[in-house]
Amino acid sequence: MTPLQVYFPLALVVIVSAILAFLLVGLTNLLGPRRPSAVKSGVFECGSDPVGDAHGGFGVKFYVVALLFIVFDIEAVFIYPWAVLLKELGWVGFADMALFAFTLVIGLIYVWKKGALDWE
Amino acid sequence: MSALPTPAPARTKTPRLAAIVSVTAAIALPLGLFCVILFATPLLQPALLDGFIRERLHRDPATWYWRDGVYTVALLVLAFVFANFAAIFSGILSWWERRVAGRIQSRIGPNRAGVGGFLVWIADAVKLILKEDLVPAEADQMLFRAAPYFVMVGFILTFVVLPFGESIAVSDMNVGLFFITSITALVVVGILLSGWSSNSKWALFGGMRSAAQVVSYEIPAGLAIMVPVLMAGTLSMQGIIRAQGGLPWQWFIFRNPAAFALFFIFFTSQLAEANRTPFDLPEAESELVAGYLSEYSGFRFALFFLVEWGNLWTMSAIAVTIFLGGWQIPFVPNELYAQLKGTGFPPLAWWGLEAASMLVFAAKTMVLVNVVVWLRWTLPRIRVDQMMSLCWKYLVPVSFACFLFTLLWQIAVAAVPALETAMGVGLTAVSVVLAVLFARQTHRNITAIGDRVDLSNW
């Protein structure tokens, strides 16, 4: 199997699914009515006129979650190749990973104590 | 609570034509999809295509200039088949879920279009195509229009590595499982885009909540996936299934106590990632209107819903693959498939075995899909703070502990292989006992309020 045969399907599936979605949305545009009005093209805010801009700003909590996610997800990315080879690495590999995981657990405890995981 | 008499469903007279159409569609669509996937997938793989080029077109596939062209056309056909499978499956499931919901809530559910309302999902699709495609004037036009494509592409891409049977998978990549976890991130991008670009407060809140929820639950799910990888020593979906067996105690879920716990963690995380109840906060109808979907209409809206229902198949199929033995048929060793196939065009016995493996896989997956549907109509929605603390304070530490336990377990199993078999049989027995107790308690709860278990009346 050449790399082309293994990864080529991905490119084709991207194209086929995007084209299918495009055709379906295009069909809506073709068959559906088109009667624009000021009320219809306004954003929905439970019937009243929209107050202010929606892009004002939002809870800083979401940024913290995003940062935590990056830390832990990169850790997962590191573990995957190691997990495949555990049987060959044996005890040395086990000790390495135990140390790595231990460091992360300390990080998790620190974040927890700092209150970053509390969500009011 | 006194016994509530179940209302007899109103018998609407279905026109003869609609009855014939709906019954034919209900039988022919799943059967047709099954057969097309069964025959098309192995036939359109390079190995059999090379034989076709050699014998029918009388060319040497190694040197023939148009060989890559034939491969490309074959893959385009396959991609089209799987995209259709996803669309039709989510359509039929949307009908099935509404029927089950009606039954659980003591009402009738859709029953007008065709027998048992079966044609309602087709009617929905037609209706949504005929709707106006609205784009708010305040919205970021380009991002708003692009968001559904991200969701759709990210969803359909998982079907590239998702197995359906022994040799029924578009491409058995050696990084299969890793590919799935990374590609589902595209769906988050789509949701975030739709929430941000709508320029509506409801959409923004829904989108941010959804992103926070999905990325948080990605951590326990990622750690849970690691354990089958450790046990199988490969990331390939088919490789993980081949490392298991057909009988329950040969499945990964029962062979390791940590995997048993992680199966439930994985399932919960997948529920949250698919935005299903009890984790449907991003589109909490009672507080956020429709979350990130608030401003969408027509088929752009339908694409999001297609993905939501289609996700039930992918999440269940992944759980079946990595924990529940995949397509393994009891007492059929992996070598038998290769022996039967031989070289050249495979014999009928091999096709039969492939069909059986596909049936086993589909049956297991449908059981899990129905569990998800059942959960949706029996559990209330949880709060945002509960959702976040459940993930970070319970699931992440527990899955870390299970991960570390598995390391020790694998070393112990390498020394004493009998340990794994003993644990498999033991945990299978415990699970059967627990399942029986659960069924008995449910039956008691129903009879205690004076109701009766009634599965007829559809």
Give a description of the structure:
The complex is a heterodimer of chains A (120) and B (458). Chain A has 120 residues and is mainly α. Chain A has two domains: 1-33; 58-120. Chain A contains three helices and no strands. The N and C termini of chain A lie far apart (53 Å). Chain B is an all-alpha fold. Helix content of chain B is 68%, strand content 0%. Chain B has helices spanning 16-43, 46-55, 67-104, 120-129, 141-157, 176-183, 185-197, 201-232, 237-242, 252-255, 257-273, 285-288, 298-322, 334-341, 348-376, 384-415, 418-448. At the A-B interface, helix 1, helix 2 and helix 3 of A face helix 3, helix 5, helix 8, helix 13 and helix 16 of B.
In total, how many beta strands of chain B? 0
Helix content of chain B: 55-70%
How much is the average pLDDT of chain A? 80
Order of helices and strands of chain A: HHH
Report the sheet with the most strands of chain B, covering strand number, pairing sense and barrel closure: none
How many H/I helices of chain A?
3
Instruction: Please report the two chains with the greatest interface, counting residues with C-beta closer than 8 angstroms to the partner's C-beta.
Output: A-B, 71 and 85 residues
So what's the overall shape of chain A?
flat
| Whole-number count of domains of chain A | 2
Uncertain ranges of chain B: none
Q: What kind of oligomer do you see?
A: heterodimer
Number of helices of chain B: 17
